[in-house]
């Protein structure tokens, strides 16, 4: 398959797309948190893979790590482009204020709070930690495959993944609950019980 792809066999490349497009899409969504951006990343990833097909090693197993590595780089480029676009838009004159519809949207989306909490926790991770987390945990790559996709040593993958898991666990801990202390419960109930005797 790798040889066919390197030789520009469109049918082979179509098979690769059919096999791995969903995996690339899931990886892109996990990195971006946005459905439409993930779709763009998939398109650009396979376009870039076709362009770089002659760099694919002839030897090796699945091309999935190669594609996920390309998707990671495409996502980085998309983020840079988005930052530039946001900066350019910020320089434009301000438009009239639009009425706030946040309450209406919040009423329809039950999971928004939890999703925001998770996304905030992910944003606190360093980019290399997010990338390793996305490859190893969400996309199911082994340490060696993730290392190959990112072009880093296996030990670096392990340490980044460990740090990412520790930071996420700490960020997603539920806050300490405030409320009635167990010892106060008897005192609060006693007058009512005495009145019923």
Folded structure, characterized:
- Helices cover 72% and strands 0% of the residues.
- Mean pLDDT is 83; it is low at 184-197.
- α2 (10-32) packs across α7 and α7 (127-138) packs across α9.
- By secondary structure, it is mainly alpha-helical.
- Residues 17-84 form the RNA polymerase sigma-70 region domain.
- Residues 117-168 form the RNA polymerase sigma factor 70 region 4 type domain.
- InterPro entries: RNA_pol_sigma-70-like (IPR039425), RNA_pol_sigma-70_dom (IPR014284), RNA_pol_sigma70_r2 (IPR007627), RNA_pol_sigma70_r4_t2 (IPR013249), RNA_pol_sigma_r2 (IPR013325), RNA_pol_sigma_r3/r4-like (IPR013324), WH-like_DNA-bd_sf (IPR036388).
- Pfam families: Sigma70_r2, Sigma70_r4_2.
Topology of this structure?
Elements: H1 2-6, H2 10-32, H3 35-51, H4 64-90, H5 102-108, H6 112-124, H7 127-138, H8 143-150, H9 154-171, H10 184-195
Question: Which ranges are low-confidence, i.e. pLDDT below 50, for 5 or more consecutive residues?
Answer: 184-197
What's the total count of β strands? 0
Name the beta content range: under 5%
**End-to-end gap:** 85 Å
Number of separate helices: 10
Which overall shape is indicated by the principal axes computed on the Cα atoms?
globular
Radius of gyration: 25 Å
Average pLDDT metric = 83
Listing every helix as H and every strand as E from the N terminus to the C terminus, the arrangement reads HHHHHHHHHH
Instruction: Report the biggest beta sheet as strand number plus sense, adding barrel if it closes.
Output: none
Category from helices, strands and their pairing: mainly alpha
Approximately how much helix is present in the residues?
A: over 70%
Pfam families: Sigma70_r2 (PF04542), Sigma70_r4_2 (PF08281)
Protein name: RNA polymerase sigma factor
InterPro entries: RNA_pol_sigma-70-like, RNA_pol_sigma-70_dom, RNA_pol_sigma70_r2, RNA_pol_sigma70_r4_t2, RNA_pol_sigma_r2, RNA_pol_sigma_r3/r4-like, WH-like_DNA-bd_sf
Family: Belongs to the sigma-70 factor family. ECF subfamily.
């Amino acid at each position: 398959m790798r040889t066919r792809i390197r030789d520009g066999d469109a049918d082979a490349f179509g098979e690769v797309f059919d096999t791995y497009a969903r995996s690339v899409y899931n990886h892109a969504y996990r990195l971006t948190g946005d459905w439409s951006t993930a779709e763009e990343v998939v398109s650009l990833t396979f376009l870039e893979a076709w362009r770089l097909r002659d760099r694919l090693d002839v030897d090796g197993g699945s091309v999935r790590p190669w594609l996920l590595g390309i998707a990671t780089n495409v996502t980085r480029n998309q983020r840079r482009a988005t930052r530039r676009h946001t900066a350019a838009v910020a320089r434009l004159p301000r438009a009239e204020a639009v009425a706030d519809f946040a309450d209406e949207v919040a009423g329809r989306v039950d999971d928004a709070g939890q999703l925001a909490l998770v996304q905030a926790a992910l944003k606190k991770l360093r980019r290399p930690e997010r990338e390793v987390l996305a490859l190893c945990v969400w996309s199911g790559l082994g340490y060696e495959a993730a290392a190959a996709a990112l072009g880093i040593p296996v030990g670096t993958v392990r340490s980044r993944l460990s740090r990412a898991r520790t930071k996420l666990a700490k960020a997603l801990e539920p806050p300490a609950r405030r409320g009635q202390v167990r010892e106060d419960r008897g005192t609060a109930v006693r007058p009512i019980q005495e009145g019923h005797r």
